[in-house]
């Protein structure tokens, strides 16, 4: 498997949010990470070696008014993307053993709602302040991650991804 590096000329990463620097909360995350920019989120959870993450080609929050009017339910705004995915590393030191779940319901790739920092597929991978939810009970992403768990976030970083 080929893994791109930080110096790969095809992609550039710009760190825009770090929990230990900016505070781990919905408000601080949404303030720093808003907009329609391809984004990579990495989350280290407490009391574990696990690392979770997600990639969205359309951004993760405050995406604007380009959403499907038919997909507004109780203030939830869903955004369409066919290439989003979420992933996990069981051990932060072992980058070869990764689990990945791709979006299967493209029209529900990202849920933008004020009650969360980010929300891939309505709680497939969701930040609510210092908690990371992995429930995927709706099934908007493949069911390859160890789901139906809530973790406490130790550190979180978000990068804008540029080509």
From TrEMBL:
<feature type="domain" description="TLDc">
    <location>
        <begin position="1"/>
        <end position="162"/>
    </location>
</feature>
<dbReference type="InterPro" id="IPR006571">
    <property type="entry name" value="TLDc_dom"/>
</dbReference>
<protein>
    <recommendedName>
        <fullName>TLDc domain-containing protein</fullName>
    </recommendedName>
</protein>
<dbReference type="Pfam" id="PF07534">
    <property type="entry name" value="TLD"/>
</dbReference>
């Amino acid at each position: 498997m080929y893994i791109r590096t930080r110096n790969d000329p095809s992609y550039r990463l710009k760190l825009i949010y770090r929990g230990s620097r900016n505070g781990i909360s919905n408000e601080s995350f949404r303030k720093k990470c808003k907009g329609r920019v391809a984004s990579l989120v990495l989350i280290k959870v407490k009391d574990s070696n696990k690392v979770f993450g997600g990639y969205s080609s359309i951004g993760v929050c405050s995406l604007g008014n380009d959403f499907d009017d038919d997909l507004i339910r109780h203030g939830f705004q869903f955004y369409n993307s066919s290439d989003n995915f979420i992933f996990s590393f069981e051990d932060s030191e072992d980058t070869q053993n990764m689990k990945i779940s791709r979006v299967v319901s493209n029209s529900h790739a990202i849920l933008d709602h004020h009650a969360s920092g980010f929300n891939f597929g309505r709680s497939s991978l969701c930040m609510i302040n210092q908690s990371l939810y992995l429930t995927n009970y709706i099934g908007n992403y493949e069911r390859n991650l160890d789901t139906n768990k809530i973790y406490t976030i130790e550190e979180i970083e978000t990068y804008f991804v540029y080509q």
